[in-house]
Design brief:
- By secondary structure, the protein is an alpha/beta fold.
- The protein has a domain of 144 residues: D-Amino Acid Oxidase, subunit A, domain 2 (D-Amino Acid Oxidase, Chain A, domain 2, 2-Layer Sandwich), CATH 3.30.9.
- The protein is built from 14 helices and 19 strands.
- Strands 1, 2, 8, 9, 10, 11, 17, 18 and 19 form a 9-stranded mixed beta sheet that branches. Strands 5-6-4-13 form a 4-stranded mixed beta sheet. It has a 4-stranded antiparallel beta sheet with strand order 14-15-12-16.
- It starts with 6 loop residues before the first helix and ends with a helix.
- The mean pLDDT is 95.
- The structure holds flavin-adenine dinucleotide.
- Flavin-adenine dinucleotide binds next to helix 3, strand 12, strand 16 and helix 13.
Length: 438
């Protein structure tokens, strides 16, 4: 039988810390034969699963089709940092007007709540901890920007604090940064366990979740949507594409594939550390990221391993050169960990948009999609589930807290690999220039 998933994509999850430490996978048998459903969701990451769960809770009949297993994509491989808010520096007022911009910021500022509520409500066993999220500044100028962000968010009622250089060093265990933004409502979790828990919650609510069921084609037939998998077919009133950075697995998500630029992010994890070392590192349940454009992110897992994530090779190869950047960052930021054994190394596909905003699109009537989380999707995808469920059950697009936009392809998409390399190089120069100006 044809395997629609590349060996590299399979290895990316199989080699991960999360696959080694997750709760058992739920039973999600492949689709066989023909079924009819109200809504078919394609892709069982957090976006697809949260959408399916919230649709099922509304009494809608929903069938999820996943090429591999729930959490197979970025959702089962990420850093597990549950982060509120959109990326910084977006011109929301210019693009959408003041009222919509305010609504979007307010929605994004509380997305972590949805994750921790879901974990609690459905008893999801995923090492969820809520010690906060730190975004640390790589230069004095960026520290000033973070101070302004804290003032703005605090004025809107957010539980955020500014940390000066010394406080940042204490909280992160790293004295390289100039200051930091701390959002106390954020945290960390075991992402593959969370994805599996969401799949179980969706099943319990009445959704059907089929694994090993790549959608090969979708077409409009007699006023309905019809999708084909190797073992069967589904007829649905509506389709939701939640394939994000994995949209190119088959031709089925062609209509949104070029709306995002996929690239790989790599992570490494040490062996569990001694208590003495752990005392000098971020608390468990605290996520740490930074303001560099070519950013790295770190945290401690439930067994006391230190995780460091960063960009890597664009071809997805899981060799030493893919991990060397994450290792260099570990040495640069945490020199005392440089000699620690690395127990795990893995990668996954992130999907970015040129304006760093997620996309809710409807490329054809009844064909919806949510994607483009720009590497910050754990909380946003989870919170988008109820939004998608509302949209699919009749809420008008204008009433949603995030805008529905056109499914515009990124120009020159076929040049994405050299373009991403050039972009990474340009970002690196800007990061270095800002640091050098201190
Ligand atoms: C290494 C890494 C680290 C990250 N760290 C963080 C972090 O710490 N915090 C944070 O907020 N975000 C992080 N992210 C981003 C976050 O993981 C993603 O934004 C989020 O998981 C996207 O979820 P999703 O459901 O949209 O897509 P995915 O989880 O990628 O799911 C897409 C699914 O679609 C399936 N699929 C594709 N085509 C088909 C088809 N034809 N038929 C059936 N199924 C199909 C795939 O198999 C896949 O399971 C990270 C991402 C990566 C890769």
């Amino acid at each position: 039988m044809t395997d629609y998933i590349s060996t590299l994509d399979r290895q990316g999850l199989a080699q991960s810390l999360w696959a080694a430490t997750a709760v058992a996978a739920p039973d999600c048998p492949p689709l066989e034969g023909h079924v009819s459903t109200d809504i078919a969701v394609i892709g069982a990451g957090f976006a697809g699963l949260s959408t399916a769960l919230h649709l099922a809770e509304k009494g809608v009949s929903v069938t999820v089709l996943e090429a591999a297993e729930p959490g197979f994509g970025a959702s089962g491989r990420n850093g597990g940092q549950v982060i509120n808010g959109l990326k910084d520096g977006l011109d929301l007022v210019g693009k959408f007007g003041a009222a919509k911009a305010e609504q979007m910021q307010a929605f994004a500022a509380r997305t972590a709540d949805t994750v921790f509520d879901l974990v609690q409500r459905h008893g999801i066993d995923c090492d969820a901890g809520r010690s906060g999220w730190i975004q640390a500044a790589h230069s004095n100028r960026n520290a000033q920007d973070l101070l302004r962000k804290v003032e703005e968010r605090a004025a809107q009622g957010a539980n955020v604090t500014y940390l000066n250089g010394e406080e940042t060093a204490e909280a992160t265990g790293c004295d390289w940064y100039r200051g930091a933004f701390l959002d106390r409502e954020c945290g960390t979790l075991q992402p593959l366990s969370y994805a599996r828990g969401l799949a179980v919650a969706a099943q319990k609510a009445g959704a059907t979740v089929h694994g090993q069921s790549p959608v090969l084609s979708l077409a409009r037939v007699d006023g309905k949507w019809r999708v084909e998998t190797p073992g069967g077919s589904v007829t649905a009133d509506k389709i939701v594409l939640c394939t994000n950075g994995y949209s190119s697995l088959t031709d089925a998500a062609k209509s949104v594939e070029r709306v995002v630029l996929p690239f790989f992010s790599y992570q490494i994890a040490t062996a569990p550390l001694s208590d003495n070392l752990l005392k000098t590192l971020p608390a468990q349940g605290l996520g740490v990221s930074e303001t560099r454009r070519v950013l790295s992110y770190s945290r401690i897992d439930a067994q006391g391993r230190f995780l460091m994530g960063a960009r890597g090779r664009m071809d997805g190869e899981l060799d030493e050169s893919g991990f060397s950047f994450a290792r260099r960052r570990l040495q640069e930021l945490f020199p005392r960990l440089a000699s620690q054994a690395i127990e795990f190394g893995w990668n996954g596909r992130v999907a970015i948009t040129l304006d760093h905003l997620p996309r809710l699109v409807e490329p054809a009537p009844g064909l919806h999609a949510a994607l483009g989380w720009n590497g910050r999707g754990v909380a946003m995808t989870s919170a988008m589930g109820p939004v998608m469920a509302d949209w699919l059950t009749g809420t008008r697009a204008e009433e949603l807290p995030m805008p529905v936009t056109k499914a515009k392809p990124i120009p020159f998409h076929s040049l994405r690999v050299p373009a991403s390399r050039a972009m990474a190089y340009w970002y690196k120069l800007q990061d270095e220039r800002e640091r050098a100006a201190d």
